[in-house]
Specification:
Layout lengths: L5 H14 L6 E2 H8 L3 H13 L3 E3 L5 E4 L2 H12 L1 H17 L2 E8 L2 E8 L14 E3 L6 H4 L4 H8 L4 H21 L2 E4 L2 H15 L4 H15 L14 E12 L5 E14 H21 L7
Length: 297
């Protein structure tokens, strides 16, 4: 494996921080405090990003913020990822329709990256922000893995601590099968989900603590696997607090490219859960078709 250049890694870290705080501006000292990057190194990277137009520096306040050159990169990225652009156009409509929060995310390596957020969740949950990254430790990321190969699912399970890995290998296959069968995931709200939300919020505000917080998130994700997480059998008359409904958008190769997430439904009957899930899945199928993707056989 090629070891990434230190300066390149710091540039990515700085840009990811700004992406998770859109519209905000920071001084060199504030970025140093938030990210823990050496002042001299941070200044060198900031200067390079400013020269490229990826950041701009206020002449009087001496603060940095995202620059206009990134708009061109974003536009090029959207043109190359039509499913993302199409999905974003539907989020606001769905957020208004369901009166809750809608999220578009992608899988990048072993992380889930938030690309777009609309609305507000009905339940106390994560302070979800564009640009946030969440390590995809089972059972998180079920929609991204429900259509994966056995080897890919095994690699996903291997991210768990070995003490709970055996249990997960027994419990997760039926839940992945349920997601494939109905075409979307249904997860129940729980105190552990709330703790995950609080940890995510702290990660956004204190990226310097990211390493320890990522370990905490992995522990919480593993704890989810020991709770009733995925709702497999939905009783139409039972009232549920739903953490998420998640539907997949597929690419041309039949792989999950984007996840559309309805975040938080409070006190809804199973009948409404199914109605909402089918509506979300129908939008995901529409985005799949219009972006040139295809659902797997």
């Amino acid at each position: 494996m090629v070891r990434p250049a230190l300066a390149a890694g710091r540039a990515v870290e700085i840009l990811n921080f700004f992406a998770a705080h859109p519209g905000s501006a920071y001084t060199l000292s504030e970025l140093h405090a938030a990210l823990g990057i050496n002042l001299a190194s941070a200044l060198s990277v900031l200067q390079a990003l400013e020269d490229a137009g990826y950041l701009v520096r206020h002449p009087r306040r001496k603060t940095y913020e995202l620059g206009p050159a990134l708009v061109a990169l974003g536009d090029a990225a959207l043109r190359g990822n039509p499913a993302v652009d199409l999905a974003r156009t539907h989020l606001r409509e769905l957020a208004d329709e369901f009166d809750t929060e809608l999220i578009a995310s992608v899988a990048v390596g072993d992380e889930i990256v938030i690309l777009a957020v609309e609305g507000r969740p009905q339940l106390a949950s994560a302070d979800v922000r564009v640009g946030q990254r969440l390590r995809m430790v089972p059972p998180l990321g079920q929609v991204f893995h429900a259509w994966s190969t056995p080897a890919e699912v095994d690699a996903w399970l291997d991210r768990l601590d070995e003490r709970v890995r055996g249990t997960a290998r027994i419990l997760l296959p039926p839940t992945l099968a349920a997601v494939r069968e109905r075409g979307y995931s249904i997860t129940l709200d729980s105190p552990t989900r709330t703790r995950i939300g609080a940890t995510l919020e702290r990660m956004a505000e204190h990226p310097r603590e990211a390493a320890s917080l990522r370990d905490r998130l992995a522990e919480l994700a593993a704890a989810l696997g020991e709770e009733e997480y995925e709702l497999i059998a939905v009783d139409p008359d039972t009232v549920y607090d739903i953490s998420t409904l998640v539907a997949p958008v597929f690419d041309a190769a039949g792989r999950v490219s984007v996840a559309l997430t309805l975040n938080g439904l409070q006190g809804v009957t199973g009948r409404r859960v199914t109605t909402h899930g089918e509506r979300l899945a129908s939008v995901a199928r529409l985005v799949t078709r219009r972006s040139g993707g295809r659902a797997p056989e």
